[in-house]
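Re: the 391-residue chain
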Amino acid sequence: MPADGRLGPTPRWSSTVSQSIYETYKDALRRGHVAALRSRFDVAVAAYQEAAAIAPDRPLPHASIGGILLRTGRADEAANAYDRALALGPRDEAALRGRADAMIALNRPFEAAESLDRLADVLDGSGRVGDACDAARRALELAESKDRRRQVEALVGRLRVSAGDEKAERSLARALRILEPPVVEEVAVAVSEPDRAPIDARDASATAATNAPAVAEPETLAPAASEPEPLVAEEPEPVLAEELAPPEPPTAAEPTVEAEPPPELEVEPPPDLGDGNLIGAAAEEALAAGDRVAARDGLLAAAAAHRSVGRSVAAIDACYLALAIAPDDVDLHLLLAELYLERGWRAPAADKLVLLGRLASLADDGPTRERICRLASQQLGDEPRLTELCA
C-alpha cells in the first residue's frame, strides 16, 4: 500500500486469469459439440461435464448433456440434467424445450406441458409470438385445460394482426387446427345417409328392423358410416362370382403382384447434426467473448442442424446472425439462397444469386460463379438474369 494510505491499482493478472478460464470453458464446449456431431456421445458428455466444472454457474453445459442423454435413450438422466440447467437458468429455452421432450419420452405429458407453458412465457416475453404460440399449442395438445386454451386463444388473437408474416401465419394455422377442428362426425353421417337407401331397398324386412332404431337413437348413426365396407365385401355373391369371372385371370393376377422390394428401397437416414438451439447458444457465447471465427462457424453449424430437421426459419435466423459477423461470406449467402428456395421465395433467392454472381465476376472468382450457376440451373432455370449471367 502506498505511504499515503490509498489503495494501489487493481492488478492486471485477474482479468488475464478470467479470460484464460473462459477460453478453457469455451474449448471444452467446442470439443463437446464436435464429438456430438460425430456421434461420439461419451466423449461429448465428458467434455460438457468438464465445461460445467469450469463454469458451474452456466446452464448451457447441463442442457447440452441433457440433449446427448435424450438422444441416446436415457430420458430419466436427461430430465435430471435439464433440471440442473433450469436451476441455474430458469428461463433457458434449450433446457425448457429439452425437459419437455424428456417428459414426453417418459410418458409424463402433464409435466411436459408445464415445461412448455414456461417456454411459451419466455418466448412471448422476448417478442417471439409465433414461437410462443407453437409452444402453448403443444402444451394444450398434451394436457387440455381452460387456462392453456385461453393462452393459445390470446396468442392467436395477436397473430391474426401479423398479416404478411409467413412464420406467424403458419403458427396461426397450426393453432387454429386445435382451437377449431373440422367436424368430421357430421360429414360421416351426411355421406352415410344416401348409402342407406340402396341397402334398405335390398331387403324390406331389414329396412323395417333398422329404420326405427336409427331415427330414435343417435348412437346408431355411428355404425351407419361403416356399413358400406362390409357390403362391398359381401356384394360379389358366390354364384355371380363363378358365372362372371373365369377362375384363372383373377387368381393368377393376385399372387404375382411384385410389391416386395422395400428392403432395396430403404434410404439411409441423414446424419444427426445435433440440437441447433444448443449449438446456436454456444456460438452466441463465443461472439460475446469476441471469438468471431468460432461464432461464425457455430452459427453455420446451427443453421445446418435446424435445416436438417425442417426448421428453415430458425436456420435463416442463424444465417442472419452469422452475416452480421461475416457479411461477405459466400457460403452464408449461398446457404441463405438455398433456404429461400426451400421456402418457395424465388424472387429473393434470385436477387441474392444475381448480386453474388456480379461480385464473383468482379473478383474473378471462378469457383463461386460455378456454384451460383449450378444452383441457378437446378432451381431457377427460367430466371433471365441468371441465364444471362451464367451464359
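The radius of gyration is 30 Å.
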